[in-house]
């Protein structure tokens, strides 16, 4: 999953955000620290943190930020952010310059989800839009730094991300239950075979005992002595 989290903020004030349901963690807290370090001037940059990368575009004091895993290229996250910026401007214009925290979250969070799904599931779609292609060219010059460079000396933040893909969990649970059911059915079959074998042995023994005059088989022993 390349992009797992996104937000739109003015300075440290988050106006809207969305977290992919496949992950949980404290990255919203980490982004608050990062937002306090981002200058208000127009810029775009990426910060590496462990196995994740924070990408952002700041334009007219509004910051568009997303977090992706380090397996994705910078092209897709910045194309995503450019589209978020375009959509935001179409929806709200300059309203974000005076809006209070999370005042646009209810309306814009679903749009973030839709864009995130689109760019995660079909990243090739960005190549069909020439305008986005031109914007992506600017990604080549984006600075990439380790996030520790923006922290004050002695300041520490710990990124905790738990990838809890529900489909994978359900698949694992189903597989585990299937194996358990298979083992139960196998043991039932073994027990049934053992029971049939035991019953067959008892029946054969009973018939033999009856034919030989009792459980000590004295009748068969007498016949054997006569033959000898």
UniProtKB/TrEMBL annotation:
<dbReference type="Pfam" id="PF00957">
    <property type="entry name" value="Synaptobrevin"/>
</dbReference>
<dbReference type="GO" id="GO:0012505">
    <property type="term" value="C:endomembrane system"/>
</dbReference>
<dbReference type="InterPro" id="IPR042855">
    <property type="entry name" value="V_SNARE_CC"/>
</dbReference>
<dbReference type="GO" id="GO:0016020">
    <property type="term" value="C:membrane"/>
</dbReference>
<feature type="transmembrane region" description="Helical">
    <location>
        <begin position="192"/>
        <end position="211"/>
    </location>
</feature>
<keyword id="KW-0472">Membrane</keyword>
<dbReference type="Pfam" id="PF13774">
    <property type="entry name" value="Longin"/>
</dbReference>
<feature type="domain" description="Longin">
    <location>
        <begin position="7"/>
        <end position="112"/>
    </location>
</feature>
<dbReference type="GO" id="GO:0015031">
    <property type="term" value="P:protein transport"/>
</dbReference>
<keyword id="KW-0175">Coiled coil</keyword>
<protein>
    <submittedName>
        <fullName>Uncharacterized protein</fullName>
    </submittedName>
</protein>
<dbReference type="InterPro" id="IPR011012">
    <property type="entry name" value="Longin-like_dom_sf"/>
</dbReference>
<keyword id="KW-0812">Transmembrane</keyword>
<comment type="similarity">
    <text>Belongs to the synaptobrevin family.</text>
</comment>
<keyword id="KW-1133">Transmembrane helix</keyword>
<keyword id="KW-0813">Transport</keyword>
<dbReference type="InterPro" id="IPR001388">
    <property type="entry name" value="Synaptobrevin-like"/>
</dbReference>
<feature type="domain" description="V-SNARE coiled-coil homology">
    <location>
        <begin position="128"/>
        <end position="188"/>
    </location>
</feature>
<keyword id="KW-0653">Protein transport</keyword>
<dbReference type="GO" id="GO:0016192">
    <property type="term" value="P:vesicle-mediated transport"/>
</dbReference>
<dbReference type="InterPro" id="IPR010908">
    <property type="entry name" value="Longin_dom"/>
</dbReference>
<dbReference type="GO" id="GO:0005737">
    <property type="term" value="C:cytoplasm"/>
</dbReference>
<dbReference type="InterPro" id="IPR051097">
    <property type="entry name" value="Synaptobrevin-like_transport"/>
</dbReference>
